[in-house]
């Protein structure tokens, strides 16, 4: 029942056990993580191209993704707003941050590039599908799984070498509270969305457990529920990141916990420069802790909920 969970968690744990101190190797790992994400999303696009009645299926994908995103966002914002009212956490004024995005469009360029990669994968699958047939789509799924295992090992290594011990993470009550609030409200949203998406309750919970980690949720959900639902999970989590880039500068000084928490797992990497730029250095450890915890929770939760229907 839990074999899939073990298979996915094993590379994450093995990667976490590897200490990397040399800066050039740390930089290599960071580049390899980014490269793995692009490979996974390209292969996911190829898999989507294998769907029958592709145009109608993509329309359904967009509608389902919008529905899930709308419900999840409503629950997340309400819960994080409630938490913001009760936490003595205020953003400060930050100096100019080196390499921080200079505009919302610049901040979102990386996310928009991911959409382009998926679209390129779909185009590639449509063009090559008639010549290579089912072998193309079967091999794309298999390669995506192996790329995911490599990505998890590299991310485990990143987490180990982030300079933040687990004790410090677990003792950061603000980061922990934000992460648990985001996770709980997302799961409630998944329960509500499940019947609307024609899914079982546990599948709805799995769909809502990506917490912004789009490359992970896309492959794990796609492997169990098919490429259509994998695409829904991807666009639901990616849209979270896009909205976070817009939301953070607008609300971080009035509702700091909401601004930090809404990005989910991305608050420890992709949205972190925006949090630091607009919220100050004091927000950084809280954002890293919140994102770290959600990154650790996401894989076991997705696979646990999916295993309930296995």
Molecular structure report:
- With 310 residues, this protein is mostly helical.
- The chain contains 13 helices and no strands.
- Helix 2 packs across helix 4 and helix 4 packs antiparallel against helix 10.
- The longest helix has 33 residues.
- It is globular.
- About 3% of the residues have low confidence.
- Pfam families: Lys_export.
- Keywords: Membrane, Transmembrane, Transmembrane helix.
Shape estimate? globular
Structural class: mainly alpha
Mean pLDDT value: 82
C-alpha Rg (nearest Å): 19 Å
The end-to-end span amounts to 7 Å
Main sheet: strands, sense, barrel? none
Protein name: Lysine exporter LysO family protein
Keywords: Membrane, Transmembrane, Transmembrane helix
Pfam families: Lys_export (PF03956)
InterPro entries: LysO
Q: What are the salient characteristics of this protein?
A:
310 residues, mainly alpha, membrane, transmembrane, Lysine exporter LysO family protein, transmembrane helix, LysO
Short description:
InterPro entries: LysO. By secondary structure, this protein is mostly helical.
Helix and strand arrangement:
Elements: H1 3-16, H2 23-49, H3 54-86, H4 104-132, H5 134-160, H6 166-170, H7 173-196, H8 201-207, H9 214-225, H10 227-251, H11 256-262, H12 272-279, H13 283-307
